[in-house]
Amino acid sequence: MIVRYDTREKVVGAFMLSIMILLALTVLAIGRSKDWFREKVTYFTTFKESYNLETNAAVKLFNADIGKVREVTLVGNVVHVRMSIFAEYAPRIRKDSIATVQSVNYIGNKYISITPGTPESPQLLADEEISSEEQQSVADLLAKFEVEETAKMVIRAVQDVSEVATLLRDPEGPLFAALTSINNSLSAVEVRVGAILDSLAVAVDKVPHTVDLVDRDLEKVHEIGVEIQANIALLQQVLTNVEVGSRDVPAITETTVKGIEEIRVGVEQIDEVVKSLKKSILIRGNLPPGPEVQVNDAGSRP
């Protein structure tokens, strides 16, 4: 039997099919956003109390979401927590991994933070227990940081500050004494600076006269320099003349020696001539008598 559908039934059927397809796509989109279709591995852990942990609370590794809390139940005297962790993060869950309950702040939503184990530790299998560590309470934190001792130290510090402030307000205290000493020192410095400024003013007044004297001295130095240059030129000329004259000294000396030698030879020749004339009979008789030789007998006695 062939069933025939009219146009209205076909339109209704197409509409219903479209609605079903749209619904399926919506479910797929929601499922993907809610991680319905991701493969998960189940683990559990236990705590001494629930810490207000709720179902669908996040499970984090290095502050990254890796799963959800599926169930929080009380088993005996401990709280049993079942978790679903994405399969791709399961290899990081080791025998020495630690699960702790944490929150963004003290009044925020709780979540489970898992510390990964060492690579040397074996991987934790599905449905096995992850070791847990209890969350520290406010009392534990206060005890850890020794708030009471810290408060006592703060009180002592405030008391010390109060005592210091009292000393500082005392007119006869060290602060006012130091300020008085500084004031006296500043006054002395001011007096010395005034004297220095006065001296500088006097020196500045004398500067033009000093500059004039320096200018005159420089002019005299310039004149002396000109005279020195002229004298140096004259001295160079004299030295040149001496150098030229010194070149003729050997010749003059040699000529003088030769003249003296000739004079000596002439004198010797004249002496020979005189001696020859004295020996001549004709001339010897006509020669004047020589000087009388007086004999003194120094050793005779009267």
**H/E order of the elements?**
HEEEEEEEHHHH
Rg from alpha-carbon coordinates: 68 Å
- Give the proportion of residues in helices: 55-70%
Largest sheet: 7 strands, mixed
Give me the secondary-structure category. Answer: alpha/beta
Mean pLDDT: 76
Number of strands: 7
Shape descriptor reads elongated
* Low-confidence spans: 297-302
The amount of beta strand, in percent, is: 15-25%
The helix tally amounts to 5
Q: What is the topology, as strand order, of the major beta sheet?
A: 1-4-3-2-6-5-7
Termini Cα gap: 221 Å
Structure description:
It comes from Desulfoluna spongiiphila. This is Phospholipid/cholesterol/gamma-HCH transport system substrate-binding protein. With 302 residues, the chain is α/β, with parallel strands linked by helices. The protein has a domain at 38-135. Helices cover 55% and strands 16% of the residues. It has five helices and seven strands. The protein has a seven-stranded mixed β-sheet, with no helix packed on it. A hairpin with a 6-residue loop joins strand 5 (98-103) and strand 6 (110-115). The longest helix is centred in the C-terminal third of the chain and has 106 residues, at 174-279. The chain is elongated, with a radius of gyration of 68 Å. The termini are far apart. Residues 297-302 have low confidence and may be disordered.
